[in-house]
Amino acid sequence: MNELTQAQLLERVTESNRPNGNPRVQKIVARITGDLFRAIDDLDISPDEFWAGVDWLTRLGQTGQYGLITAGLGFDRLLDIRGDEADRRAGRTAGTPRAIEGPLYIPGAPLSKFEVRLDEGDTQRGELMVMEGRVVSIDGKPVAGAIVDVWHANEIGRYSHFDPDQPEYALRRRIETDAQGRYRFRSFLPPGYAIPPNSPTSELFAAIGRHGNRPAHIHFLVTAPGLRTLTTQVNVPGDTFIDDDFAFATRDGLILELEKNTPPAGYASLGVTSAFTRVPFDFVMQPAVDEDESAPQARLARAVG
Ligand code: MBD
Ligand code: FE
Known about the structure:
Strand 9 (217-223) and strand 10 (230-235) form a beta hairpin. The chain is built from seven helices and 13 strands. It has two domains: 1-45, no CATH class; 70-304, Protocatechuate 3,4-Dioxygenase, subunit A. The strands form three sheets. Strands 2, 3, 6, 11, 12 and 13 form a six-stranded mixed beta sheet that branches. Helix 1 (6-15) runs antiparallel to helix 2. With 305 residues, the chain is an alpha/beta fold. The chain starts with 5 loop residues before the first helix and ends with a helix. Bound molecules: 3-methylcatechol and fe (iii) ion (FE). The site of 3-methylcatechol has 10 residues, from helix 4.
C-alpha cells in the first residue's frame, strides 16, 4: 500500500485534493505536477539538478525577477497570441495591436491634462522628442478623458522604482486626453533594455545561450470608460534588436515613424524652442464587451484585485 509507482504517486498526489478546494486550481496544479513528473523522468533529471532548480526559483522570487523570466521565455507573448486568436475568432481585429505589459509597470503615476514633460530638468538625455496623437475608438471618434499611462527607460536603459538612482515615478506619467481626444508629451528617445547582470535571470539566459536585450520601446496602458483597456508598446525604428527582442514583443503596426527636424512652433508649452523629433501615434481602441474589459488596471492588479 505504501509502495508506490510513479503513476500511483501522481494519482495519490492529485486525488488527495478535497472538495473544499478550488476546482480550477486543483485542475491546474494536477496538470502541471504531472507534466513535471514526466519531464523529470523523460529527461532523467538528477536530484542535484532538481534542487539547483528549486534554489534558482527561490532566488528568482527573492530578487523579484519572475516577470523577466516569463517575458524572456515567451509566456507574455504567448498570452497576447492567444488573445489575438480569440479576437480573430470573435471578429475583433480592429484597433491598435496589443503588446505585452512587461514586469516594470507601476500604477499611480502623476496625472496631467493633455500634455506633460517626462524629461524633468533641462539636461539633454537623448534625442529630444514629442510624441503626440489622439485616442480614438475604432469608428474614428475621438475619446475625451481617456487616460494614457506611459512609461519608459532612462538614458541607460533603467526603469524608475526598480532603479534606486532615479526619483519616484521618473519617466512615468498619466495623461488625460483633451476634448478632441488629444495627448502629447515631451521626452527623449529611450535606448533599449538589458536584463540585470549577475542575477538569477542572467544566469539562466547565459546557461541557455541567449542574450537578454530588448530593442528601444515605450510602454502604454490606455484606458477609457466603455472601451477595452489597451496595453501596448511602441518601438523606436532602427534598433539592432528590433527583430531579435528578448521578450518577443515587437510587432507590425507598432514601429514608430520619426519626423525629424520638426519646427518648434506650437510646442512652447513643452519648452521646445528648436527643431525636434515629432513622433505621431494614435491609439485606436475597441469597444469593451463587458466591464472587466474596460477595467483601468494593469495585469497584477487585475489578477489579485
Ligand atoms: C522590459 O523593459 C520590458 O518591457 C519587458 C517586457 C521585459 C523586461 C524589461
Ligand atoms: Fe520595457
